[in-house]
Amino acid sequence: MKAHSLLKGLVGAAFLFGTAVSAHAADTLAAVKAAGTLKVGTETAFAPFDYIDAGEHTGLNVDLFAEIGKELGVKIEWVALPWDGVFPALEAGKFDVVAGPATITKKRLERYRFTPPIAEATIAILKKAGDTTISKPEDIAGKKIGVGKATAQLDQLKEFSETLPTKVDVREYPAFTESYADLAAGRIAGVANSLPNIAFVASQRKGTFEVVLPPFGKKSYFGFIGLKDADHAPLMDAIDAAMLKIKADGRMAELQKKWFGASFDTPDAVKDPAF
Amino acid sequence: MSIKLFELLLQAAIYTVTISVVSILIGFAIAIIVSAMLLSRQRLFALQARIFISFFRGVPLLVQLLLIYNLLPAIGINVPSIVAAIIGLSLCTAAYQAENLRGGFSSVPAGLVESAEMVGMTPVQIFRRIKAPIALRLTFPALVNEAILILKASSLVSVVGVIELTRMAQDLAGSTFLPLEIFASAGLIYLVINWIVALAGGLIERSLPGVPR
Fold first, then answer.
1. Contact assignment for A4 to B48 by CB distance below 8 Å
2. What's the CATH code, domain A31-120+220-260?
3. In a mutagenesis test of the A interface, which of B70, B101, B167 is the best target, namely the one with the most A β-carbons within 10 Å?
4. Class of CATH domain B3-109+139-207
5. Would you tell me which residues 35-54 of chain B have a C-beta closer than 8 angstroms to some C-beta of chain A?
6. What is this structure's pTM?
7. What number is the ipTM of this complex?
8. CA-nearest residue of chain B to A21?
9. pLDDT tens string A20-52
10. Residues 6+ apart with CB under 8 A from B163
11. CATH superfamily placement of domain A123-216
């Protein structure tokens, strides 16, 4: 009885949860090469890294992983999930690496492994064009500010909020695109996201949005994320090596220019992030 | 809103319809088995069917989908997004459909069955000629209703990575900043699909044998 055994499977899975080990082959690099496909998880609501442009999945990640795929000799298969579902699915082995990207933080480094950084992730504020009530980051005190749920930007915004005379009214969104829509509709006064993201949004929607400079808080970087265990080490080593090669021969800077309008100077690895 | 955007929504709608139809059919097949177990004189079968129904009717579909997608790999079954979506929707609808079928079968008038026994029909004949047509007739409106519910519930499967109509609308609204036009179009597409399902259901219902009007 199919239904019954499935139910048993589910119950069994519930008991196994927590003690379960990854059902992956021991060496993920070998498995990826054998399959000829590198599975990459992401959300498609984080322009300019990953977004849908009139139905086409596009962005820096798509271009950069195309290069990584060439270096490894494999095809790239994308899996798009809501951001808060990406990390559980990575741990469940639904894909080999997360494109995201994610801000490299101390907490995340404890659990995950990061590739070399691909961009600066320092946080800044996006406001409605012509909003004179916000001219510097401190002006968001007491205002409604949108930010992505389960993001490092949320933590950075909260930390900044503590330093202000009136706390920020933080509004969490499942995806940043929804917060931009609410900003455009006037439901919130600003969106806190990393500078490359909001600079891109502002450049796409001139006359609708403006960036509030300077960025605030501590300097941080974006990287791609993989699992820390021994099984995934050869794969992550290979991706790191491919990315450093792409960075060394100038392809990375070219892609940054294409998507951010400027190239960034990023370290080869972030071992001790600021927060 | 451009024609191109509307086309993209229609393409995503095909995904929505395909996933829903496949899930309804698989769910119906499972429901037949589960309802038979429910009505079985074997206590153990009935109990297992009850547990199945309690679980899939009692846990929110969103949670079921996340469980299937993220928990099955822990026991070595790593299913792709689309399969996880169909398993989730099928099992959920099976639980509801099984209850509907049970209701249908237990509503077959005992007098009819007794009469059939009196004229010497075998149990198989009674099932095929009396019980099944009447039960199907009684449960058909509920089945159409369930199909419509699943079509709408399929908007949840984007949590496991399937880009269906709702998710496509969200993506497009996010990149075009035209949420009003895009969500209105998506709503209209859902409405038309479900209107067609209801209409077809009504036509089929009238052609069914069984209880006369």
1. yes
2. 3.40.190.10
3. B70
4. mainly alpha
5. 37, 48, 51-52
6. 0.80
7. 0.75
8. B74
9. 444 444 688 999 999 999 999 999 888 899 998
10. A80, B12, B15, B171
11. Periplasmic binding protein-like II (3.40.190.10)
